[in-house]
Amino acid sequence: MKYRRLGKTELDVSVIGLGTWQFGGEWGRAYTQPEVDAILDKGKEQGINLIDTAECYGDHLSESFIGNYIARRNREDWIIATKFGHHFHERFTRTDVFEPQDVIKQLDASLKALHTDYVDLYQFHSGPDQAFDNDALWTTLDKQVQAGKIRHLGISIGSNDNLHQTDASTQVNASVIQVVYNRLDRIPEERVFPSCERQDLGVLARVPLASGYLSGKYKPGATFSETDVRHRHDLKSTELKLQEVERIKQNEVPAGVDMASWALAWCLKHPAVTAVIPGCKDPEQVVANAKAAELIDSL
C-alpha cells in the first residue's frame, strides 16, 4: 500500500480507501455485521486506513456497521470520514437538512453510531451553494472542531464542476474536496483540480469505477435489478458508457491487467488526487482494489 498526505490535514491516508455506501442497502443487497467485519479486516490486512461513509447511507446504518466493528478494534488504526446534510427516509429517498442546529444533531448521531468521540473528516455532503454560503453553519462546525468532535472539515461537492464551493474551501476552513472522478468523467481536471492544487487541498475521488461500469464485468446491453441504484440510471446513457468501457478495455488497459485495478490506478496518476474511495462488496474486491496501488508507477 502507498500513503499520501491528505492536503493540509497532515493525515497520511492510504491511496485506496473503503467506500461504504453499499452497507446502507442501496446497492442490491443487505449486509450483516460479520460480512462488514470481514471486509474491514481485509482492508486493514491490505494496509488500507481510510473509511468513507455518510449519515444517509441507510439512516446511519453504514456508520453503525463501521462503529460496531471499530468498537472491537483499535480506533487509531483508522481515518474515518463521514458526511452531513441529509435525512434518510427510505431507499433512494432523502431530504436536505443543512441548518446548523440540525447538523449538530447529525454529528452527534454519527459519533454515537460510529462508537467514537471524534471523526477525522466531516464533510458537507453534496449540498447547494445557498446552504454552503451560510456563515452560521461553518461557525457552528468550527466550534465542533474546537471541541474535539471533528479533526478536519471537508466538502463533498455534488457537481464535479462546482468551483464556487471548491474555491471557498480555505475560507470555510475545509481541507479536503471529495468529487466524482473516473476515466469516464474527467470534468474535475478542468477547474476543480487546479483550484485544489492552488489551495493544497486533499482530494478524494469518489465513484472511481463509475458505479462499477469500469469494473470490466458488464458488457453493452447489461441490465440491473430494481433494488440496485444503477437501475435508476438513464438506459441510453448506461449503454453509451458500457460501449465506451469496451473501447477503453481494448485500447487502454494493458494485457493481463485487471480493468478495475487499472481504473483506480488511472485516477491516482493525476497529481491532484490523494486517494480513491471505491465501494467493495466482499473481501475479494478489497484485495483487487488494493492491488491498484502497485500499478500507479507502471502506468
UniProtKB/TrEMBL annotation:
Keywords: Oxidoreductase
Pfam families for this protein: Aldo_ket_red
UniProt keyword annotation of Cytoplasm present: no
Listed InterPro entries: AKR_Detox_Biosynth, NAD(P)_OxRdtase_dom_sf, NADP_OxRdtase_dom
SUPFAM superfamilies (UniProt xref): NAD(P)-linked oxidoreductase
Keyword DNA damage recorded: no
GO molecular-function terms, A-Z: oxidoreductase activity
Positions of transmembrane segments: none
Protein's name in the database: Oxidoreductase
Species this protein is from: Paenibacillus baekrokdamisoli
